[in-house]
Amino acid sequence: MNTPSTLTWTDALTLNQPQIDQTHHEFVALLNELAELLPTCTEPADALPAYQRLLTHTEQHFAMEEGYMAATGFAPDNCHSKQHAMVLDVMRQVLVHTHAEQDLEPMRNLLPELVNWFPAHAEMMDAALVYHMSQVGFDPATGTASTPALVGAEPISSCGSGSCG
């Protein structure tokens, strides 16, 4: 099976939340930048700057979303955050391996996995977060919610969707 290593932005990835949509656009662009670069790389030093940009962006991207979760009532151990932690853990392990072993293969293997993972994550978990943010009237620019009583309710330990356990 040939797995794609680039991701095309489609309307299905748009969540109509400007900060998250912008961050997702940037993530896709950085993912594609790495995908374009990797086939021509023979030395890890050629790919590491692009990979580091992707990793740094992903850390900031997930921290932003987790800040929104914390501000709107998600429990610290919710499944959305756990998925972020797993992805970052793998990305960091690939970075360590690439430096230590001077080996690009794990990076080449990870890229199509991220391409496959991201649309489902955005369409389910991030969409649920955006829906929840709209339900509590959360404004990311000010960090305030217009319905604070909903924010103080039982912390959400799932992904934020009613269909998530």
Molecular structure report:
It is a single chain. This protein is an all-alpha fold and 165 residues long. The protein has a single domain, classed as Four Helix Bundle (Hemerythrin (Met), subunit A), CATH 1.20.120. The protein has helices spanning 18-37, 44-72, 79-101, 105-135, 148-151; strands at residues 138-139, 144-145. Strands 1-2 form a two-stranded antiparallel ribbon. A hairpin with a 4-residue loop joins strand 1 and strand 2. Helix 2 (44-72) packs antiparallel against helix 3. The longest helix has 31 residues, at 105-135. The radius of gyration is 17 Å and the shape is elongated. This is Hemerythrin.
Summarize the structure.
By secondary structure, the protein is mainly alpha-helical. It has helices at 18-37, 44-72, 79-101, 105-135, 148-151; strands spanning 138-139, 144-145.
Entry keywords:
single chain, 165 residues, mainly alpha, Four Helix Bundle (Hemerythrin (Met), subunit A), two-stranded antiparallel ribbon, 5 helices, 65% helix, elongated, disordered C terminus, Hemerythrin, Haemerythrin_Fe_BS, iron, Hemerythrin-like, metal-binding
